[in-house]
Inverse folding.
């Protein structure tokens, strides 16, 4: 009759949860420069923390789950949405990257809206109006995918506007599609980005800033 050998308990599990979380923060550090993962539909995608390595996931099932949970809690996904393919390369669908499993891991999303005057000058047929319309279409496609992200809690909007001043309503209209995201999602505008854009940036007028604030306020009060 064979004797069953008890499974070994990973030493890490004997530590308090708080200590394990501190260890996970060293195993999954935040990157100074988030790794660019891919290009999709004129948008670059990166994540602030590298996912757990497979060797760490083999230690113990409980540790594996805790590592995944920690990564989901701290990781910020960055998406840069531009209005031309020249800067962003390959055209792919958002849902080819953000599969259901990936969407379950996303809690925080940073959306960078990039309106590049240099790119506009490279394509004489494109105008500020067509550029903003294209950005709006891509943002709409993004929201259709993230409407199925069950745990998304916060969207941080970063606006890099290098185009000449134009109709405010055109810029505000592209933000309205954010209202299709779940009601639980809160929105924030990163004002520091107004001053850290392209060298030829046109600072937004006080009216535009106030109008954007009003749109974001309405989104948060849904």
């Amino acid at each position: 009759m064979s004797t069953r050998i008890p499974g070994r308990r990973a030493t890490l599990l004997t530590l308090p949860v708080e200590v394990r979380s501190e260890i996970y923060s060293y195993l999954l550090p935040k990157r100074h420069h988030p790794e660019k993962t891919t290009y999709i539909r004129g948008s670059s995608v990166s994540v602030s923390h590298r996912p757990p390595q497979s060797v760490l996931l083999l230690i113990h099932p409980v540790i594996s789950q805790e590592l995944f949970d920690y990564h989901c809690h701290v990781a910020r996904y960055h998406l840069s949405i531009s209005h031309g393919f020249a800067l962003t390369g390959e055209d792919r669908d958002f849902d080819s990257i953000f599969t259901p499993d990936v969407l379950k891991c996303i809690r925080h999303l940073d959306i960078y809206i990039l309106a590049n005057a240099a790119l506009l000058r490279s394509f004489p047929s494109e105008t500020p109006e067509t550029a903003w319309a294209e950005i709006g279409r891509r943002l709409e496609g993004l929201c259709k995918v993230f409407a199925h992200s069950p745990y998304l809690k916060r969207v941080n909007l970063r606006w890099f506007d290098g185009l000449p001043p134009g109709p405010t309503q055109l810029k505000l209209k592209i933000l309205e599609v954010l209202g299709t995201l779940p009601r639980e999602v809160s929105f924030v505008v990163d004002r520091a980005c107004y001053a850290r854009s392209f060298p030829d940036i046109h600072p937004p007028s006080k009216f535009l800033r106030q109008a954007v604030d009003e749109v974001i306020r309405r989104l948060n009060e849904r």
